[in-house]
Amino acid sequence: MSDTTTVNKPRAVERVIAGQAVMDGAGVKINRVLTQQLQRRLDPFLMLDNFASDKPNDYIAGFPEHPHRGFETVSYMITGRMRHKDSAGHEGLLTSGGVQWMTAGSGVIHSEMPEQEEGVMEGFQLWLNLPARDKMRTPWYRDFDSSEIPRYTTDAGVTVQVIAGASHGVTGAVQRELTEPLYLDIDLPAGASFEQPLPPGHNAFLYTFRGEVQVDGKAVPALRMAIFANTPGSDGVRIEAPQGGRVILVAGQPLNEPIAQYGPFVMNTQAEVFQAVQDFREGKFGETAAQ
């Protein structure tokens, strides 16, 4: 594929973040890179978790039934098998290279449980906020097999999978009108570089999960996130990989709305959060989820 897209003034790196080691679900070990303290800075994104282990005790307990309201979850399985079920009777199997995009909306209860007892389990979960007008919409989800994720290879040998948004003329699996998320998996061979145009108002970051990349002369090694500065006049990002590396690149249009969060409920006001807790306790979640 010809590299016809160029970036004339790439963004600088504002900071590089290591993330926090946490346990979630029933004891799954996770590197939480985008934490609650960064929600304003990286609006509309609320959280990014990376899990990667070949030790079954790190992941086997999975994520038993739990609720969500007011946002979307994007689960991307690099390697492994995860069975998901929800309170509306839907279920599916997320396998290596697959993506599940779920809109929790007005509320859903679901579980994500490993369907393997050994081997490597590796992937990401990204939380994407919903605008106030959509927070109580009907829950929805879709599973994408690896073969359904659009991809291309540049002349430099960079392989790009387009989960959301568009890149170099390739439209991704999912589009969202207001937040306009871009979600790319970019695999750069040694010595290669990659450029991606971005609207100036979008917040953006990358996370390296193989090797090491360089952005604006700064090294971003494996298991680190680089937040891109919102530099006036910048038109995108440039990523270089002298020794080779693989990253996810995420960007989106900020909502600039109030964020009120209590665990798995993300609304605009505390009153809405209290209502979410009450509705969950009264069993009003997830009965209308649609695929």
TrEMBL record:
The UniProt entry, under Pfam families, shows: Pirin, Pirin_C
InterPro entries to which the protein is assigned, alphabetical: Pirin, Pirin_C_dom, Pirin_N_dom, RmlC-like_jellyroll, RmlC_Cupin_sf
> Domain Pirin N-terminal, which positions?
29-128
By its UniProt entry, which CDD domains does this protein fall under? cupin_pirin_C, cupin_pirin_N
Domain (Pirin C-terminal) ranges: 183-286
Q: Which PANTHER family match?
A: PIRIN, PIRIN-RELATED
- Family as reported in the entry's similarity comment: Belongs to the pirin family.
Task: Write down what this protein is called.
Answer: Pirin family protein
